[in-house]
Design goal:
It is a single chain. With 216 residues, this protein is α+β, with helices and mostly antiparallel strands. The chain has one domain. It has five helices and eight strands, in the order βαααβββββααββ. The strands form three sheets. The chain has a four-stranded mixed beta sheet, with helices on one face. Strands 3-4 form a two-stranded antiparallel sheet. A two-stranded antiparallel ribbon has the order 7-8. A hairpin with a 4-residue loop joins strand 5 and strand 6. Helix 3 packs parallel to helix 4. The longest helix is centred in the last third of the chain and has 21 residues. The chain is globular and about 45 Å long. It starts with a strand and ends in a 6-residue tail after the last strand. The structure holds zinc ion (ZN). The site of zinc ion has 7 residues, from helix 4.
Length: 216
């Protein structure tokens, strides 16, 4: 499933891009609640799963630091090694198979009327367990930010956990899904507890989106 922005990463099954990558705060939007009962049950279970047993902080933070250093060196093989190591440790902790990481160059993107409309940060293929992340920005080809790459890897890893730990093969983007990404992300970044704010959601039609005004 392709994911567009580091926080938002809207899935588009048909390869259709939605959302805008030009915003400073990318929109975090859930998938709409599906109608068929089987997938709806998965969606509701995922949405309600607001807890996640967390791995030892030190190891994750050390992995994240290595990822930061590798991005500074701007070499894809080093970024892949650091990213794979981080994913291996997480997979080990959750006792799931390791996803296989591929690091690619400039993000696939779409330009409309001279503006960057969307860009792909990462994706995860359920069947193969391959997790891909692009390390260079669209248009300028600059190395992606450390936080952006960390968020992409954790977002895709949470899809992997949905499939292998929770047994939700559709791994929908729900409020619970983003909560789980957020928990790992702030643990990796050592965000102090008093600097973390709970995600606040606003309902828009059949979807939820994060109210950034309540977060920043
Ligand atoms: Zn996703």
């Amino acid at each position: 499933m392709p994911d567009l922005a580091p926080f938002a990463t809207l899935r588009s099954r048909a390869g259709r891009s939605r959302g805008s990558a030009r915003r400073y705060s990318p929109p975090v939007v859930t998938d709409p609640v599906p109608r068929p009962a089987r997938v709806r049950r998965q969606y509701e279970a995922s949405d309600a799963q607001h807890t996640l047993e967390l791995p030892p902080a030190e190891l994750l933070q050390r992995n994240a630091e290595r990822l930061r250093a590798a991005l500074e060196a701007a070499q894809a093989p080093g970024v892949r090694r650091a990213g794979q190591e981080l994913l291996d440790h997480l997979a080990d902790f959750y006792r799931v198979p390791s996803p296989r990481l591929t690091i690619l160059g400039v993000r696939p993107h779409r330009v409309r009327d001279g503006h960057l409309e969307s860009e792909l940060h990462g994706d995860y293929t359920i069947e193969t367990g391959v997790l891909r992340a692009w390390m260079r920005t669209a248009i300028l080809g600059k190395v992606t930010s450390y936080r952006g790459m960390l968020n992409t890897l954790l977002h895709e890893f949470v899809h992997h956990l949905d499939v292998h730990l929770f047994r939700w093969p559709d791994t929908p983007h729900t409020r619970g899904f983003y909560w789980r990404v957020d928990a790992l992300y702030h643990l990796a970044l050592r965000t102090p507890a008093d600097k973390r704010r709970p995600l606040v959601w606003i309902k828009t039609g059949a979807r939820w989106r994060i109210d950034w005004s309540k977060l920043r």
